[in-house]
């Protein structure tokens, strides 16, 4: 064993007793406190511009065949921890509901839906020739040279398969001290990525280091690394690149807020705040891209299909697969693909038609009912024989 690896192994042992930062829960369920869900972030976060013109949304009343499903959605909103919901038929908004204190005047925090936004930004960077799926991360982030994380390719990270430490029980990777240092500016996300145990290889059942690309482990290391890679490769910050190539491309009408540290490195694992109508625009843009032509559409089609199996089901128990920061093969609608956020934040699409669902919540305790609602909504599109 080299001296470097010996120091690595010893350091991992010493880190075992450190207290780790944790995301909130309500009993056994992931929770999103309203002050987080409906808040406006920190003063050092990035506020976006708006698209001119904004993407048009078309509002229509539910058809006779849709009314029963819309009524089911209204009951679920009323009886669950949901705070806002929407049912979409392509660019047509068929129904939107809010529950106090949520409203059309509030922004909604993505939590890990932001990982899907990061995936879209990476796709744009690939099409802009700033990186490739095969690019090793240490070519984009030289500070990771010599670390196991640096050996992973862009595609390995998109699939949550860097092979590195699995993170905290809730998939985060920060200690409480690191979280505080990020807030006061004495640490950056780049520093986190080069601090043990984050960049070291995880071990498989036989005790051998995991190889990048071989095994799915849902954790924050991989999206945070791609956020830093975007920062390094594009010549601008993660937040500005996401603003320009994703949110403005989607046609947002009102300013959004993108999380970043005080050094400009993005919270690429999930810290984006948009008004609900702009989350609708994002969802419509992703679907339009999935059915379009060209480099980015080719990427989105790949991103929204299973690239790696969710074997352990430690995370995403309702999904058998994972694409590029997108969950696939839902147990209620197999061809659906989902952006998923802590506490019950969801955007659902499917490959067969243009039906979409959006939900923002405070407790992740009704997801089975939400997935069943989406299956009903998507089936109405099947009945119409909505083609691509």
Key words describing this protein structure:
388 residues; alpha+beta; Beta-lactamase; nine-stranded mixed β-sheet; four-stranded antiparallel β-sheet; 15 strands; 36% helix
What does this protein structure show overall?
The chain is of the alpha+beta class. It has one domain (31-383): DD-peptidase/beta-lactamase superfamily (Beta-lactamase, 3-Layer(aba) Sandwich), CATH 3.40.710.10. The protein contains 14 helices and 15 strands. The chain has a nine-stranded mixed beta sheet with strand order 4-6-5-15-14-13-12-11-10, with helices on both faces. Strands 3-8-9-7 form a four-stranded antiparallel beta sheet. A two-stranded antiparallel ribbon has the order 1-2. The chain is globular.
Shape: globular
CATH superfamily: DD-peptidase/beta-lactamase superfamily
Helical fraction equals: 25-40%
Kindly provide the name of the CATH class.
Answer: Alpha Beta
Query: How do the strands line up in the largest sheet?
Result: 4-6-5-15-14-13-12-11-10
Quick one: biggest sheet? Answer: 9 strands, mixed
SS content category: alpha+beta
CATH topology, anyone?
Beta-lactamase
**Radius of gyration, in angstroms, nearest whole number:** 20 Å
List the helices and strands and how they pair.
Blueprint: H1 3-14, E1 25-26, E2 29-30, H2 34-37, E3 46-47, E4 58-59, H3 67-79, E5 82-89, E6 92-98, E7 107-109, H4 113-127, H5 137-140, H6 148-151, H7 154-158, H8 176-184, H9 189-193, H10 221-234, H11 238-250, E8 257-258, E9 272-275, H12 276-290, H13 295-303, E10 308-309, E11 319-322, E12 327-330, E13 336-341, E14 345-350, E15 355-361, H14 367-383
Parallel strand pairs: 4-6
Antiparallel strand pairs: 1-2, 3-8, 5-6, 5-15, 7-9, 8-9, 10-11, 11-12, 12-13, 13-14, 14-15
Helix pairs in contact: 3-14, 4-10, 4-11, 4-13, 11-12, 12-13
